[in-house]
Structure formats: structure tokens, C-alpha cells
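Form 7-S
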Amino acid sequence: MTDIYIVYLTYFSTVEQIYSFKSLESAETKQLELSHKWVNTDTWDTFLSNQNVSIVTLDTFCDYFMEVEDDCYVGIDKVILND
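Output:
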């Protein structure tokens, strides 16, 4: 069995971009990169201020997307392929 990690970007309920990786670390790096690029700056700044966040991590972006309505979402899923 092979694990594949899928990173996807949705924008207005449409999948805009999709990437696949063999390692979780690579997938999380891409997820962090896309999250940083696509997040709504105004609501992001407000979220950070309200949450008193001083160090931004991937978990910070995940919390943001779960708590704040945004036009986009960056997610990650694991797929198991049978050999």
C-alpha cells in the first residue's frame, strides 16, 4: 500500500488547484504556502488579533479556515493506494 497526500485549493466551492505528494511533510509545506498566498488579508489580520497569535503555523491557518468564512479553503487529505 502507498500513502499519497492530496493538497487542494477551493475557491467559491470550485476546486482550483490540486497537488499530490508522497510525504506528509511535503504536502504540509505546500498547504502552508497556498494558505499564506490565498488567505483574505483583512479577515486574517482580524483573526490573528482576536486570537492573540504571535507565531503563525499550519494549525493557525487550519483554525482560521474553520472559524472564519472565506472565499477559499486549503485542505489536505490522505489517500491509500493498493499496490
